[in-house]
Amino acid sequence: MKKFFLGMENELLIIKKAPEGYAYFSCLEGKHPTCIVVDPQNENVIYCGTDKDGLLKSEDGGKSWENIGNKTSLEIESKTITALAINPFKKINGNSVIYVGTEPSMLYYSNDKGETWQEFTGIQSLPSKKVGVFRHAQQLITCVLLQRVILMKII
């Protein structure tokens, strides 16, 4: 089934192809979505970064959402999520690695579906824009910093 995700200023629209055309529903009203990624292992698992409400996760295709990433003081510090990426080719215990970029500039990753997070250190003073994963070079991620692309090798 084809799905489209539209992050609007104050809500997230999820549009699905239906036999009679397209159907949509609205969710996350007032949450200001900034980035969205769908788990390639399960299309019902959706991660949504927001401007002021941190990282949200849905396990039912967007019907209900849980705030993840800041359950403890050792998790994602910022509530402004600017970038999300999932590396479907790098798996740890069967889970794809999830990357989260924030502002102020921090980069985190989770290898347990967002239950716990680790921080990549050394880039805190750089303003980040986007995070991505190279399909054929699973050990590399990118981070766009003020029109420049930074490659990071993950071992």
Rg result: 15 Å
* 3D shape: globular
Order of helices and strands: EEEEEEEEEEEEEE
CATH architecture: 7 Propeller
Count of discrete alpha- or pi-helical segments spanning 4 or more residues: 0
Question: How many structural domains can be distinguished in the coordinates?
Answer: 1
**The CATH C-level class name:** Mainly Beta
InterPro entries: WD40/YVTN_repeat-like_dom_sf, Xyloglucanase_GH74
Protein name: Sortilin N-terminal domain-containing protein
Structure description:
- By secondary structure, the protein is an all-beta fold.
- It has a single domain, classed as Methylamine Dehydrogenase, Chain H (7 Propeller), CATH 2.130.10.
- 0% of the residues lie in helices and 52% in strands.
- It has no helices and 14 strands.
- The strands form 4 sheets. Strands 4-5-6-7 form a 4-stranded antiparallel β-sheet, with no helix packed on it.
- A hairpin with a 7-residue loop joins β4 and β5.
Architecture blueprint of SSEs:
Layout: E1 3-7, E2 12-18, E3 21-27, E4 33-38, E5 46-50, E6 55-58, E7 66-68, E8 81-92, E9 95-102, E10 106-110, E11 118-120, E12 130-133, E13 140-145, E14 148-153
Antiparallel strand pairs: 1-2, 2-3, 4-5, 5-6, 6-7, 8-9, 9-10, 10-11, 12-13, 13-14
Provide a concise account of the structure shown.
This is Sortilin N-terminal domain-containing protein. The chain has no helices and 14 strands. The chain has 155 residues and is mainly β.
